[in-house]
Amino acid sequence: MDIMGANLISAALEQGYLLIDTAEFYNNERDVGTGIKQSGKKREEVFVISKWWPSSEGAKGAISSLDRCLSHLNSDYVDLYMIHAPKEGHCGEAYRALSDAKKEGKI
Q: What is the model's pLDDT at position 22?
């Protein structure tokens, strides 16, 4: 974890930012989770977006990434979860798996 990153997220939230955009690829989801906690904001007061970088693992990779994201954010859900730079291949499987995750309340 990058303490400076968490401090910047916390400061932004304290100044009125209400949306945080992160991604596993950015390697800062832990900073976002720590920054939200540090700010004293309730999780439901902050809209968090994260993204999965498509891999050959398809649906399995998308769900594994989502679960890591939730763990890093220390949250039961993320407000919006997208496929980062979708391309042909396993994205259809991933979309279906993420749709199921939405029904489960993870998104």
A: 97
Does residue 86 come out as left (phi exceeding 0), alpha (psi in the -120 to 50 range) or beta? beta
Q: Write out the residue range of the structural domain in which residue 66 sits.
A: 3-103
Q: Is the dihedral of CA 95, 98, 99, 100 positive or negative?
A: positive
The pLDDT assigned to 16 comes to: 97
Given the residues 17, 26, 77, 95, select the one marked as catalytic.
26
Q: Look at residue 1 in the predicted model and tell me its pLDDT.
A: 62
pLDDT, position 66: 97
Q: Number of folded domains in the chain?
A: 1
Instruction: State yes or no: is 26 an active-site residue.
Output: yes
Which residues of the chain fall below pLDDT 50?
Answer: none
Query: Distance of alpha carbon 65 from its chain centroid, rounded?
Result: 9
Residue among 35, 34, 33 at smallest CA distance from 13:
35
